[in-house]
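Z., the sequence and structure:
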Amino acid sequence: MKQFFLAFNIALLFITTIYRCEAQSGATIYTSGRYILGPCDDTLSLRGINYAPYNWGWETSKLYIDEIAKTGANCIRLVWYKSNVDAVPNTTYTTYKYLDSAISKCIQNKIVPIIDLHDQTCNNDTAALSLLTDWYLQPAILAIINKYKHSLIINVANEALYVNWTSNPTLSKIIFSSTYTNIVNKIRAGGITVPLLIDGPDCGTNLDVLADVGATLQAADPMHNLMFSAHSYWYAYAGNDSLTMLNKVNYALSKNIPFIIGELSNYQDDPTPCQYLLNYKPMMNICKTKNIGWLTWGWDNDVCAARQVSTDGTFAHLTAFGDDVVNNANYGLATNTPAKSKYLVAGKCSTALIQTIENKTKVLLMPNPTKGVFNVKSNEAIESIKVYDLMGRAITLTKLDHNQYSLNNTQEGNYIVEISTKNAILHEIISVKN
């Protein structure tokens, strides 16, 4: 028994090392490998909707977050601007109480707010992008960020910079990486610790570049707390082809970076609204199968009415696209509701609450000890299983049956089994005795 507890403590130390970002623990949402975790260390599958509050700044009395919450979304990406866009006849974007209200309303609905600055959308100006991000460092904005830092994500800038769309993609990839490295370090130097979400280049579409530079950017971040976002307007980028989409996603997954599909839609503009019909359903299914977060574009008041989720901002009046996003049996927000952040559910990291939630997912390994072959019993569908030794090295695992596995060529000792389900990532110790 003493030997078991010693091994278990070593395993816990290892798990804490590889699955917890010490600087973020208990303070903010944070990342570990490809996973996004809440302040209470629960794995978050971010699924939600893009929303420009107050009707793109025109109507400050209208805020539809309560209506969006009815979909079951656990996050909302809030479109904002550093300064008023020319068409908006008021000072919405420079009156920060409106931003605070939008974030606060998300928090009240147990929804993770994602601030997004839209000023540099589809622009390739590194200097302007750097100046844009100074907006986060204003005292009034810093106060808002710190107020909600337990559950806030900052999407640094929407769809900025080009790589494949330039005459020298190799050089442009270096520029993309170095520009964001400088921006991230500037933001961190300003005291911001919340996770930063970085969009892909080429109007957000280029997931390959994020996959290639993601680890470098993550290592350069003093907080090691970056996420990445591709926008799946992939009519050309992936040829609107489901297999190509899957290959793009698998390539990014192979890099072990935390990424989401920040805008997922049924139509793409270029240059006119609704110009291309997108093959979005296979993309939604890929996200479901691979456990990748997504946010659909968009809630209401879009130039392409057919890709709105709601016709008028209310949940009662969903479009055909919105009805599918919410009610599709396989990937709908209402039919496959993503778990809310445990911190937002409880208002703190309550041990009692966490225990209640985690008890919903129970896993049994048997026999244990084993000679190498074991069965896994779970009250939830298992999405993946991995095994590590106590030094953190991956162990080859062979699936023999729907719930039976074999550890290949393992020596006697204790191993960590990582079981991923829809709602949790659990770690169990299994002992091998030949």
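Residues 34 and 400 are 27 Å apart (CA to CA). The longest strand covers residues 413-421.

Let me know what you think.
H.
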